[in-house]
Structure formats: C-alpha cells, structure tokens
C-alpha cells in the first residue's frame, strides 16, 4: 500500500504551501459553554477595572484596563496576564511620561505574538485627552507607544488589524474650539512595526444629519474597508441613537445604519458575521422610555437590518450589553451589566441568543456586587472568559474581574422549566446487571431519574448517546455538590461515585436545538482492575505519546484534563468512558487493543473535521469576495478567505499537489486535506506538517486510520493505526522504518 508521502516531496510541498500565504488571515471562534464558574480578581489595593481580554491560550490570557491613582502617581493603564495554568504571570502599570492618567480599553493579539492595546492619556497641564496606543510583548516589554491627537479631545476605543496588515485604531474626537463643541468619529492607520501613523491627522467621519457622533468599536472587512459602530446625537430630543457606518478602503461611505428614537441608545461593539454582515451589541430604550434593554442587531453587508432584539436581564431596570462573541454553532453570546430599579448595585450579565436573535438563556452574577462585564472571548478548549469590574470578597472598592465558564454550561443550555418530573428506577443493588433506560428527549428537554441504595455503594452512571449530544449529572441525597459529565458529540458520559444509603437523583440533559436519544445504565459494583499488561504498556510511553492519547480522547469528545502528558483522575475517567463506549472493561488503563481502537477512532474523527475544513475552504474559494493570488505563469495558487486568525483556503503547487483546509499565521495549520491525484491525507496539520491523527484514502476509500507524523525526512504513519487495505484489517505500530514495527490482526 503506497500511502506514505514521498520523504523528498512532502517537505517541499508543505513548505511551498506555507510560503505562499503571506498576509492571509481570517477569524474563527468556538462553541457552547459550561457548568463550572470561576471568579478571579486583581489583588490591587487600588480600584481598577479590566476593559478588554484576549483568550489565546498559547500565552494564557491577557487583559488590559485602568487603575486609580494612589494619591502620588496618576491613574495608570494596567496589563494583566495569566499563564496557561492560571498563575498570574504579569501585572504591569503602563503610562506616558508626564501623564496625569492613562487607560487602556481595547486589546488585539497580533499574529507575531505581541499585543496592541489602545485607550487614552492625559498629560500634566493639558485640558484634553489624547489617544494612546501601545505594543507590548507577553513578558511586558514595550515595543512602542504613541500618543495620537491634536488640540482637541481624542479617545481610542478600538484596535483592529486591517486587511493589508496595518493597524486601525480610533474612537472619538471633539474640537473644543469649534462652536457648539461637535464630536466626530476618528480613526488612524498605523504601521504595526513602529507605531507610526500613516495618516497623522486621522480620518474624521461624522453621521449624516448629526452634529455629534463617535465610534465605540470597529471591525475590519476583507475588502480593505471597515465598519465602525457608536452613537449619534438626535438634536431634536437631545439623546443618542445607536449608529454604524461602513467605510470603503478609499474612505468613502458604503452605508449607514441607525436605531433609536426614544431615550438613550448606543452601539458598544461590532463584530463580523460569516456572511459578510455584522453583529452590533449595545443598548436601547423601549417605547415607554423608562429603562434601557440590551440590544443585539444583525446588519447585512448592504446595511439593512436582518433582525434586532431587545434583551432584558430580569425585572424592570437598566440592562446594557458592552460586547459579544459568536460560536462555531452560530450561537451568540452577549456580555454586559444590569441594574434593577429596586437595587443600587449593578451586576455582570451574560446572555445567549440563537442565530436568529431568539433569547435562549441568560445569567446575572448577583453574587458579585457593583460589577459589569466589558469584554468576552472563547478559548481553544471552549471556555468562555469575560472581563470587567466588580467588588472582590473582602476587598475595598472595585477590582478587575475575570469570570470563567467551563464548556457546556447547563444554565445556558436548558431552562429549568424544561426538566420533567423524576422517574423512580427503584433499588440499585450490587451483584446485579444494573438498570438500563432508553429515552428520547424533545429539543431542550431533560429527564430526571431517582434511585435508592441500601448500603454504601460505588455507583456507575453511563449515558451512551444514540442521537444528539446529551449530558449527565448526579445529585447525591446528602446535598453535596452535583457531579456532572459534559463530554461532547458521540462520547459516552460517565459518572463514578461512592454514595451513602438513601435516595439519589440522576439527570440527563439534551441539546437545546434538536431532539436526542440515549441509553442510560446504572450499576453498583467495584471498579474494574487494569491488567498487568496494560500497566506495563503505559509505563513505556514517553510524554509525547501520553499527550497524543489525551489529544485523541479530546478529538472523540472526552475531557482528559490538561493535555500535559500527566495522567490524572480526569484522564482515567475519560479513558473509562471511552472504554464503556467501546464495550470493553472500563479500567481506566488502555490495553494495546484499546490503544489501537483509540487511534483508529481519533483518526476518523480528525478526518471528519478535515473534510469539513476542506469543504469550507472550497466554498471560500468559490465566494465572490475570495482572495486569489497567482504565480508568474498566472496560475492561481491561493484562493479563499482573507482576515485575521484562522482562514480556510485552497492552495495548489506547480507539481499538482492540492491543500484544502485551515491556515493560521501564513502556514497550513489546523484541519485539512492534502491531495496528490486520487490519493488524499485528511486530518490534522500542525504548522505545515502532518501531526496528530488522520486517515489516508485512495480513490475515496479509507486505507489507513490512526496516528501520523514525521518519519525520516518525510511524513506518514507514525505510532498506532489500523491498515484497512486488505480484506482483514491489521493493527500496526510504526516508527522510523518503511514497514511497521509490529502488525497484528485487528
């Protein structure tokens, strides 16, 4: 079977593909939320606030904001960074020489790994603010910082990367010397390497028919233009409307959007939609004019409103959104604050909306006083991070606040009203086969089951999805904290616990968007013991092999904990859940056959993601706004998306190789498919190399599934996999040779 890539050819192919992608980038975000909620606060004795956050977990998290004066020094901007395990790695004050106060409110992570933040600064003996922009490294080293402004008052509220690689920063300008003090939106293009302004005076943009208007946020478009969002004052009622304007690359207006008419209205944030439109987050006043509601609007690429929703946090009060993100599922998350009329304190608030703007659920953090959330993002492992300000327990005043929500947060998925009354399953006794239930749930449904044990028992609850992704929770009778399992996709859910005598409850929760079906198994029995062979096998694995096992479990929807090569209780639980799904003894230790099964299943899971990425790349190449670049023979070698972060595109080499899939930082990176004629390698591509899991196909037939990586001077099968080329499948272990080290019937 000729399924390994030519050692001499593949490095050239991938290096060529990587080299041709200079300057091509596009955004992508991830999925639903989660059960665990964690609060963290800055430990400053002075009041401070986090205004923006970056969730790229290669460096941990980074947040920026402002800190009050201590009476001697002025108020300063702050940079706060945590490493990948949650330890505070940096807490830095930033200011300009001779500054009275400095604040940062926007944050951008560059592909190079540095960060750019923007805000404003006021110098001694100066009446007005200037825009302030700084580029810094993860260790806090300042690359450059610059003030932007003139004789008026300027504040920067955003920093984004333009389509051509420049920085776009801006916000509001007020010229105090002009009659009636008009305000306008303003933005600058900066050289990212030096911070130098390409247009030193900035470009002013005012709303049509409005004397005062300003920008609060911006998003760069793939065609080189941008959409800015903020507010415009209605002089007839002396109040503001939410406002957005699309500007072409030459600075001319493409369209304007406006909403209001009653009370105060404001667009605080704008983000891109996959269809070329934008989503706007802010607040608006309803017709009775008494209170504000959170506002989310979907605006099409020609400036027409697709839908607009007002969202309330609860009882009558003032509710506001300050930012938002979109998941891969299309669900929308908005963050902000709410203040009921009956209360003095404001509280942070998160709401979840469907793709059509329908409100699914929301959560108010009434346990954090004087709080609001300004910014949000989603990590690679699907945690939601939101940053803002709140009173920390035992603290004086307000401090920077970060809230973390783990994946698949039930409160954002299934309203409690959807849970049915419980079904009594009777007594659960050791030595029996246990209890098995099959159930179909309506969209957003949940089912509770009660059971009784007479003596202390170790209990296993296993949920095997048949259709749809259902989650599982165990609620002990002693009012202990519920135990949950929130694996994803077709992964089994497994909960193990030693329970006291009494009646206990188990709950299965289905997905909000579709029906689901599952088998639920309850057993009372001791834990299965691993074989000596499985223990000995695991002892031979190096750290990289252990990480690969953890990664394979993640691809299949299990949660093994941090993929650090250290097998913890979470890893053992994930392995047992995988073994339950596979129908083998659930020991928590992988036998050789289990390891082959994991590699085979993870290879196919990676291939499914690779196929999806390849399809998206094909569609991106067919889109009207696709970016195309050609070689000297005028043959198109790159065709697809254009923007920051992850892009989907197609690339072809002169020798006929084709790569369809994800790119990041100018290199094939993520999931994709590499083809040479009728031969295809589909799965994980890491920094231009086959690495992780995938499959090999020839003429549409899968001939190998499992682990792959570098082999000699090329790439191909590496580690555990299953060869399907012959009638009888063969399990193989590969290392550096041209033939497998070990082959056994599978």
Walkthrough of the structure:
The chain is mainly β and 746 residues long. An eleven-stranded antiparallel β-sheet has the order 38-39-40-41-42-43-44-45-46-47-48, with helices on both faces. Strands 29-31-36-33-34 form a five-stranded mixed β-sheet, with no helix packed on it. The protein has a four-stranded antiparallel β-sheet with strand order 1-28-27-26, with no helix packed on it. Strand 44 (689-698) and strand 45 (701-711) form a beta hairpin. The longest helix has 31 residues, at 592-622.
Brief summary:
Residues 1-12, 14-35 and 408-420 have low confidence and may be disordered.
What structural category arises from helix and sheet content?
mainly beta
Mean pLDDT: 83
Tell me the number of helical segments per DSSP (H or I, 4 or more residues long): 5
Helix content: 10-25%
Oligomer: single chain
Major β-sheet profile: 11 strands, antiparallel
Question: Could you list some keywords that capture this structure?
Answer:
single chain, 746 residues, eleven-stranded antiparallel beta sheet, five-stranded mixed beta sheet, 5 helices
SSE order and pairing:
Elements (H helix, E strand, L loop, with lengths): L9 H10 L17 E5 L6 E7 L6 E7 L8 E7 L5 E7 L4 E11 L5 E9 L6 E7 L5 E7 L4 E9 L5 E8 L8 E8 L12 E3 L7 E8 L5 E9 L4 E9 L5 E7 L6 E7 L5 E8 L6 E8 L5 E7 L5 E10 L5 E9 L6 E7 L5 E6 L7 E7 L5 E7 L8 E7 L17 E5 L7 E7 L4 E8 L3 E11 L3 E5 L7 E3 L7 E7 L2 E8 L6 E9 L7 H8 L3 H13 L13 H14 L9 H31 L4 E4 L5 E5 L5 E7 L5 E7 L2 E10 L2 E8 L2 E10 L2 E11 L2 E10 L6 E5 L7 E4 L1
